[in-house]
Amino acid sequence: MANSKLPTYFISHGGGPWPWLKQEMPFYAQLEASLQDIPRQIGATPKAVLMISGHWESNDFAVMSNPKPPMLYDYSGFPEHTYHIQYPAPGNPALAEEVHTLLKAAGLPSHLDAERGFDHGMFAPLFAMYPQAEVPVIQLSLQRAYDPAMHVAAGRALAVLREQGVLIIGSGLSYHNLRAMFSRDKSAEIAARQFDEWLQETLLRCSTAERYRRLTDWEAAPSARAAHPNEDHLIPLMVALGAAESEPATLIYHENFNDRFAVSSFRFG
């Protein structure tokens, strides 16, 4: 593992605590299968996971440093048992310190956070990937201004971790307009498809320079703001891309979710 450079991922993480609600939410089967396949793609158990979740933002980059992170049930309206879920993966304070140091060395403001717990953007997909919670995990926040270039720069700063067996995952959703998802507006489905087509074109078929240009100007994409009224679930992509900036992308998951909204996940490297 020490001599193997791991790929990075941008995954669509689904809604709320869906792995614990399979009877109520059976429509996540294809997403679940794609997440369960990631350990096979990697071929070895990572030393640790560094997760950038769309559910944590801070004034600067915050790095989870608790050796035993608590749970954060950052959702509402779900059955009572989903507020007692445990995903007892250990933290990794030494890795947190290294992430903090790498970001500071790149001129990116950063601090350690010993209080923050695992949010569902982390524990829902990782339960599908590593259900035994045996892999240490730390989370890195988004920077609240959502500057795409800054988040690509953060990925560049952290790219060295891939050679140490650290799996870098940006966890969000390629389409995240909750109001539209709960409507029956056909224009929302068109917007999701248009943005997804642009995203696939950008990641799978553009040169390194053009990919960077398009992503840092993502608001110019077709239906960009219709797909992401708030970009918190898109920006984790920038970190994953930055950590493997010149490497090819692979589409690892794509479907019309609920037969309506185009969603995708990608591997880099």
Explain this structure.
The chain has 269 residues and is α/β, with parallel strands linked by helices. It has a single domain, classed as LigB-like (Protocatechuate 4,5-dioxygenase, Chain B). Helix content is 34%, strand content 20%. The protein has ten helices and eight strands. The strands form two sheets. It has a six-stranded mixed beta sheet, with helices on both faces. A two-stranded parallel sheet has the order 3-4. Strand 7 and strand 8 (261-268) form a beta hairpin. Helix 1 (29-36) crosses helix 4 (120-129) and helix 5 crosses helix 10. The longest helix has 20 residues, at 186-205. The radius of gyration is 17 Å and the shape is globular. It starts with 7 loop residues before the first strand and ends with a strand.
What is the element layout, followed by pairings?
Layout: E1 8-12, H1 29-36, H2 38-42, E2 48-58, E3 61-64, H3 93-105, E4 110-113, H4 120-129, E5 137-143, H5 148-158, E6 166-172, H6 178-181, H7 186-205, H8 208-216, H9 224-227, H10 236-242, E7 249-257, E8 261-268
Parallel strand pairs: 1-6, 2-5, 2-6, 3-4
Antiparallel strand pairs: 1-8, 7-8
Q: Mean pLDDT score, rounded? A: 95
Please report which band the strand proportion falls in: under 5%, 5-15%, 15-25%, 25-35%, 35-45% or over 45%.
15-25%
| Strands side by side in the biggest sheet | 5-2-6-1-8-7
Strand segment tally: 8
